[in-house]
Amino acid sequence: MLKRKCSGCGEKIERKFHYCPWCGKAPKAQSERTNYGMLGREDHIDGNQMASELKLPFGVGKILDSLMKQIEREIGNMDNVSQTPKGIKIKVSRGMPGQMMPRKMAPKVEAPKLPEIEVSDKEQSRRAGLPKVEAKSRIKRIGDEIIYELEVPGIKSEKDLEFSRVEGGIEVRAYTKDFSYTKVLPIRLEGLNFSTKKDKVILESRS
After folding, report:
1. CB–CB of 174/135 below 8 Å?
2. Displacement of CA 202 from its chain's centroid (Å)
3. Sheet with strand 193-196: strands edge to edge
4. pLDDT in tens, 102-154
5. What is the model's pTM?
């Protein structure tokens, strides 16, 4: 009958005993398998030891030992594969492989149009021959509105005005009987309102 030494009192007991009949302590191997599973505290068991405890035929222990080592290597390889190296980012995209996701196009914003006033060929010819004078201007702010007042003696109506885009703003041309008044203003066309009143051209724009 195979015996082993009790880890508690040192007496020899049979291997089939789960507890020492002398001191009542469970054998170390049995206790560790109870608390830590079949492989014990060290998470490892010798194949020959397992074959001896399970009373398997001679030579099976070496086979079990080889299988256990192979399983440990496979588990180690799986752990290495599952880890992602530092600095590498994995991008996950939706859709079929190789399919480009459509980009949202920004809405096209059209530039505001200049005020258009119909003028006859005869009037255009007359205006082209008028001497040019820079109009005097005053500016004032009311809330978020900027108001420009241009002094244009002899101006009659809005039909005598022309507008053109220049760098940094617009150019205003006001025509009277004897002169062509011009002025470049640093304002935008968006929300521009204009009118004429008592020898003045009034332009309102939001800042």
Report:
1. yes
2. 48
3. 136-142, 145-151, 200-206, 193-196
4. 666 666 545 456 566 777 889 889 999 999 999 999 999 888 888 999 999 99
5. 0.44
**DSSP state string for 89-149:** ------SSTTPPPPPPPPPPPPPPPPP-----HHHHHHHHTSPEEEPEEEEEEETTEEEEE
Tell me the per-residue pLDDT of 89-104, one tens digit each, with 9 for 90 and over: 555 555 555 556 666 6
Residue 38's pLDDT band (cuts 50, 70, 90): very low
Q: What are phi and psi of 155, to 5 degrees?
A: -70, 140
Q: How many whole angstroms separate alpha carbon 62 and alpha carbon 144?
A: 92
Of 15, 4, 12, give the one whose Cα is nearest residue 54.
Answer: 15
Q: Which helix (H) or strand (E) is 179 found in, with range?
A: none
Q: How many CB atoms lie within 10 A of CB 40?
A: 17
DSSP 12-64: EEETT-SS-TTT-PPPHHHHHHHHH-TTTTTT---HHHHHHHHTPPTTHHHHH
Q: What percent of the chain has pLDDT over 90?
A: 21
- What domains, with CATH codes, occur in the chain? 3-80 (no CATH), 121-206 (2.60.40.790)
User: Comparing 5-9, 72-76, 159-163, which segment has the lowest mean pLDDT?
Assistant: 72-76
